[in-house]
Amino acid sequence: MAYTREIHTLIIGAGTSGLLVAQGLKKAGLPYSIFEQESSSAYQTRPREWGMTLHWGSSHVSKCLPPELVERMAEAYADPTVAPDAVTGLPIYNGKTGELIFEMKAERPCRVSRKKMRNLFSEGLDVSYGKDLVEIVEDGEKVRAVFRDGTEAVGDVIVGCDGAHSRTRTCICGEEGAGLTTVPLSMFNFTQTFTAEQAMYLRKLNPLFITSIHPDHGTMFWISIQNVPDPGKPETWMYQLLMSWINNPLSEEENTYEGRLAFFKKRSEEWAEPWKSAGRWVKDGTQIPMDPGTYWEKAAPWDSRGGKMTLCGDAAHPMTPHRGQGLNNALQDSSNFVAAIQEAAGGTKSLTEAVAAYDKEVLERGTLEMQVSLKQTMFIHNWETLMQSPMVKMGMHQAKKEKARTSEEAATE
């Protein structure tokens, strides 16, 4: 495409969406600068790691990545030896009896490692690390990002790809408007390796993931493969374990690393196999973090200041994780943003018009999914409402207004 205007984009955040935006702009021949709050060493060595489910959003990856990186997408998979079409959905079991309830359908689902996907997406990019955004300043027709280390960057548009607790969102919407709402949800989310025999046992039901809901208290217990460094050495395989429930039954004294591990092991004893054994096999001394659920309940049209400021990914629609939609929506945001900047640079739309159209679609799609995912979170943690949850009608498929309405009607029948 021939461009009539050079539009320089400032990307805040080098997570999946920020990196994909940078790759897309680079592929399109458009200038960009990308900034990450963490230092380069912390970015690579952060202790927490988890997986994400890639399904309907995968088509947006090839729109932004160069062909040579698209061909290497398997490097981001939790297990590169599992073909993307090997699994049709997430099997959901009765945690008490071990009986299969149903399968949550998805479009060619595969588990990807957040760390491995970031490493792949960052190839060929020049990321500026240690850049903690403090404020955004309008500077005539330009926009200026001010960082805590005293440095500044000037561009034509700034896009916040800095996650659920986005500083960019706060700069655009204000502290109150950007604030998150906490859901009465508690989550243990951590990784673990096992002996070779144990590791193979945990993958018998499904090579990627399994989950269960316990009918007595609605607790969810998820097991998924996180990393397979050596397919021939199961003792090297890393698993992601997630237990979540509504409200917090842990006392202040119990809510420590030791207390959480004791609670996890005790509650695991109530499960059927293989969840019971997975709980028993978690190593002593494992440090289990406690995470709340959050979403942007106050999401509303934001002032882009004439197309100079916008949001992308979790910064635009932080959501609870129980429908596996965060990554896929972020990938669509990234490709849509790149397309919008191409339109503005090509002269088919002004920057104001292109960003306004982008914002409208992202807000509408993101708000719908935040609401659907929240309903999913609340409904699946209650045995009485489990079969009325969105996953029964919609699976992991992208939320559409009509599908969401049908799910809403089903829940009230």
From TrEMBL:
<dbReference type="InterPro" id="IPR002938">
    <property type="entry name" value="FAD-bd"/>
</dbReference>
<keyword id="KW-0285">Flavoprotein</keyword>
<keyword id="KW-0503">Monooxygenase</keyword>
<dbReference type="GO" id="GO:0071949">
    <property type="term" value="F:FAD binding"/>
</dbReference>
<keyword id="KW-0274">FAD</keyword>
<dbReference type="Pfam" id="PF01494">
    <property type="entry name" value="FAD_binding_3"/>
</dbReference>
<protein>
    <submittedName>
        <fullName>FAD/NAD(P)-binding domain-containing protein</fullName>
    </submittedName>
</protein>
<keyword id="KW-0560">Oxidoreductase</keyword>
<feature type="domain" description="FAD-binding">
    <location>
        <begin position="7"/>
        <end position="175"/>
    </location>
</feature>
<dbReference type="GO" id="GO:0004497">
    <property type="term" value="F:monooxygenase activity"/>
</dbReference>
<feature type="domain" description="FAD-binding">
    <location>
        <begin position="305"/>
        <end position="365"/>
    </location>
</feature>
<dbReference type="InterPro" id="IPR036188">
    <property type="entry name" value="FAD/NAD-bd_sf"/>
</dbReference>
